[in-house]
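To assess whether ligand presence alters the predicted conformation, the chain was also submitted together with adenosine-5-diphosphoribose. Input:
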Amino acid sequence: MTANDCFMNPNDLIQQTAEIIVSSKHVVALTGAGVSVESGIPPFRGKGGLWEKFDPLEVAHIQSFMRNPERVWRLLISEMKGILADARPNPAHAGLARLESLGKLKTVITQNVDGLHQLAGSRDVIEFHGNFAMLRCMDCGLRVKTVDVAMTDMPPRCHCGGIYRPECVFFGEPIPMQALDRAQMAASSCDLMLVAGTSAVVQPAAFMPVMARQSGAVVIEINPEPTPLTGSTSKYLVRGKAGITVRRITDEVEQMLAARR
Ligand code: APR
Ligand code: ZN
């Protein structure tokens, strides 16, 4: 990060980011809860974050789920189910899907479990923390769609009597092997990583931009706030909400590509 990068005005950074995207050969995005805030899903940290209301180790750790699944279902998951059921993609998801269809974004590595990237049309999505769309019976392994399960009894049970758990990754659980392998492959082979809407404090997701940087890629952040990556791993931070920022960057990319034809 050079000194002038820090103080360029956001419009120039939008333009500069679009130029870097157009000249890159393998672009990957890492997204976090911040890209879904404008879809009405609260983030975990910072203003209005879920972890301001709940203690994550109490309601999002596998041991607390195994100890008292009903409590976790009541506290966290039914809150999430309500929010997730109504959420729709916002311009941040749509912009990343458009970059992919323009051939200027290969993969989205997302920490989110809301499925909004896929709903917006992104095809290559790595769900680093699983997803909330599916539940799995802890006894017989039956997988069902979350929307198909009436949340009348807590915890929801399979017809075999087993308790359902969501297919998202709880704290204290490993990242699904295939997701981790694919994300590491993407991070180490890209020449540009866009990091949008993540506080970059949860490992190993937060190491993906570091891995990309170590492999020679440029890392650019899109976030209203700086993160531990800012000023060290990322070339610069485009300060702003993901919705408007990703849309403006994607508009610029589209114009630059059209001008080349
Ligand atoms: N646009 C872009 N970024 C935003 C917006 C927005 N409109 N609103 C908030 N942000 C930023 C915040 O500044 C913050 O940096 O999004 C980030 C949200 O951070 P977190 O809530 O910590 O979300 P995330 O980084 O995805 O958390 C990582 O922690 O609790 C676990 O499993 C959970 O996947 C999650 C992981
Ligand atoms: Zn079962």
